Each structure stands twice: as structure tokens, then as C-alpha cells.
Amino acid sequence: MKSVEHIFQEFIDAIHTAENEGDFERIAIRVAQRLGFRWFAYLRITDNEPILISSYPKSWTNRYFASRYQQLDPVVRRAALEHDLFTWSGEAAKPLGTRAQRDFFDEATTFGIRSGLTVPIRGGFGRVAAFTLASDDLSRMPDSLIGESKEIFQLLGLYFHSHLTAKLQLRVPVMTPTVTLTQRERQCLMWASRGKTAADIAVLAEITPRTASFHLDNARRKLGAVSIAQCVAEALRQGLLI
């Protein structure tokens, strides 16, 4: 199996070519499978009807919306409260939930949906979206699949959301940026979001590696991030790179 970093780079290259919903779906299916998951799901909760792009069985998604499960789904509820990636499993969550939520996880299990990881994507006015990779294999829990690559998985979800909404011009509330980045900081961060190192950015931007690192570090400090990956994730959240 290729490294998570290599798979992520291929995902970035592919998503820049996506032109329609079908393209985004195919790219997400491919990256989910290559990372060891069976399905992906992108769910956006709106004032009207929720928007879903996923590879889940159609019989499950039809049942999900017919029963309005988005209102009690513990994963969706948690995504509305948290900012960082989290993992979940039906077996672990059932003892903590209500009877309706336990029944929900039992029903999801009949479709093979047993565990996963979810990247919350927060918008203004309490809006929320979530990018999920799910598995039917209890012998390979999400934590073991993530390993040391949590920030890359976080970026994957944010990158999918940002490019999908920009390309399809979905009406989503965008966070008001809390900081201002210089043009060069934005340029370096954009290349970093595509998996480029400071040395790569130096060649692409025709600057020295030291200067590239300087601009990346400035952006990281402005956004209160502890790493460049976290910095890119926060910039994507605030709409600074789209």
C-alpha cells in the first residue's frame, strides 16, 4: 500500500481536475478505498434539504433521509460541536446514546456501516458539514488506519469541501477571516495545501527555501497553528485559499 502522503498527493492532483458532482464522487471513492475504508460520505446540513454525496448503499441513504436520521445521528451531532477529526464506532457509541440512537447504529450495522472517521466542517450561523470515511471491518478500526496521519485526513476532508463548494458554487456560509495573509503567504500556503515542501515552493515561486519557510511560518503564527498542515486546514476553514 502506498503511503498516506502519496495517496493524499494523488487526491490533490485529481480533485483539481473535478468538474462536476460525479467527478468528486469518483475521486472520493478512490481515496477512501486506497486508505483502507469502504465508503465515503459528504453531508451538508442546510436550512432546506440536506445535501449528501456518498458511496453508501442507496437503500441506506434513502432510509436515512426518509426517517430523518440526520436529526438524531450521533456522528452528525458531534460534528456540529467539534472542530477536529474524530473516530467513531457503533459498538462503542451504543451504550452512551439514547434508545433511538442505539436503534440507529443497529440499523446502520445491517448495511455494514460499523465504524469510521469524520472531519467536521463548520460554517457561519451554526451551519455544519461533515466528511466521513467509513468501514465495515471491525478488525481494522479507524484509529489504526489513521496512525500518525491525522492532520492529512483532516486536510482531505476540508480540501474536498472547499473545492466542491467552489466548483459547484454551492451556497454555503463562509467564515469571516480573522486574519489577513499577504499575497506571498497565501501563495506559499496554497502550494503547501497541494503537498509541496518549502524546497518545492521555492522552485515554483522562484524564491529561496529560506524565504518560503519564512512566509509559511508567518502564516502559521497568524493562524495560531502548531504545524503547516494545521495552518492549511485553518486557512481552508476561513476561505483564505479559495
TrEMBL record:
Pfam families according to UniProt: Autoind_bind, GerE
Gene Ontology MF annotations: DNA binding
GO biological process, one term: regulation of DNA-templated transcription
Key words, A-Z: DNA-binding, Transcription, Transcription regulation
Domain HTH luxR-type: 174-239
PANTHER family: DNA-BINDING TRANSCRIPTIONAL ACTIVATOR DEVR_DOSR (PTHR44688)
Annotated protein name in UniProt: HTH luxR-type domain-containing protein
Organism annotation: Candidatus Afipia apatlaquensis
Taxonomic lineage: Bacteria, Pseudomonadati, Pseudomonadota, Alphaproteobacteria, Hyphomicrobiales
